[in-house]
Every structure is written in C-alpha cells, then in structure tokens.
Amino acid sequence: MRVAKRLPSPDRYTGIFFLTISALLFWACMNIKEFAAIGVGSAFVPRLTAGLLLVVGLALLIDSWRQPRAAEAETTESQQTTSSGLVGLPAVAASVISMVIYMALLDPLGFLPASALYGFAQMLILAKDAKRAYLKFALIAALPAACFYYLFVNLFDISLPAGILG
C-alpha cells in the first residue's frame, strides 16, 4: 500500500502571506504621525487593517492544520467535476468586472445601494450553483453596507455619495 505524500494546503501559504503583510503593514504604520488630539487618528485604519489581516492569517493557518488532507483532496476533486459555477480565472475576471461596475454606479446610485448590489453580485460569483440562497445573499449584502454607511457618515464624519437616497 502506497502512502500519499501530504502537501501543504494552499490556505497555509495564504495564511503565512497574510501574516507577513500584516506584520509589514503594522511596522510601516508605526511612523505615521498622529494629527488628531482626540478621536481617530491617521494611523487608525492601517492598524485596523493590519489587525484584520492578522486575524484572517491566523484563521487560515489554524484551519489548514485542522483539515484532514485526504478529505480535502476528495472535496476538491468532487467540486471540480460537479461545479458549474465560476471557478478560477473566470471568477477572478467576473469579480474585477463587478468592481468596475461598482465604481461606475457609486456616484449615480450612492454608496448604500451600490455597495449592497456589489456584495450581492460578488456572492453570486463566488457561490456554487447548488448553494445559492438569494434572500440570504441580499440580507448579508445589505446589512454591512448599511453599517458601513452609518459608521462613516455618523461616527467618522466622512461624506459618502448619497445618490438616489439623498
């Protein structure tokens, strides 16, 4: 009986990459001078991004070590044979096209509807055909868009395009 050689999961490489980028970003934002005496300073967003990348990188690393390799290989093979959704380069191309459309619709529609539509479209691109739940996708797309709009407009006092709602 031949023992299959276990290759590291691509998630492990991605996790290491995210941890590296997080460390570099955090190190780079140490030199940002704070201009705000109170509240959110100019280093807040880079540090927040570094922290989020750290969390995602750790989650990917932990998940890559917990997954059994044989089940992962079988799942990948079955997904490739049964999936009729976008995979690989077509999914990337569709994502880039949806980002361009999002940027074009941001001013006429406004931040809230354009962001919700972009999130919905991105979920349709990334979801497999059998797992499409349109109502769930709409709710998941609209809720963060509304939260981000409230956060930026009311807490950070940053104006976003109002579009048809304003």
From TrEMBL:
The keyword Membrane applies. It holds the Pfam family TctB. Keywords: Membrane, Transmembrane, Transmembrane helix. The chain crosses the membrane at residues 12-30, 36-62, 83-105, 111-127, 134-152. InterPro entries: DUF1468. The keyword Nuclease does not apply. Residues 14-161 form the DUF1468 domain. It comes from the Bacteria. This is Tripartite tricarboxylate transporter TctB family protein.
